[in-house]
Amino acid sequence: xxxxxxxxxxxxxxxxxxxxxxxxxxxxxxxxxxxxxxxxxxxxxxxxxxxxxxxxxxxxxxxxxxxxxxxxxxxxxxxxxxxxxxxxxxxxxxxxxxxxxxxxxxxxxxxx
Length: 112
What we know:
Radius of gyration: 13 Å
Number of strands: 11
Strand content: over 45%
Structural class: mainly beta
Number of helices: 0
């Protein structure tokens, strides 16, 4: 069955960095675009970034453009999100999504 497992979240100070990973299994990872979303407390889930099957096309929400970088390693069936210059408003549970399936999420907290 399709499985998506996020990792790499944690507590970081404003201005810091984190790298999230999403390990995929149960489907042909390289055949699908994949997405990062996030959900902050009391808010709806929002799209953060997306990447095409080969990684040649990447798109970002305006709120993270220039600070976050999405990438994928199809040989490892893994999606990444490099997050730099983190802000308190980036605090959320981060989810990867592919084929309409969601991972369980990983918590990112940006606080001093």
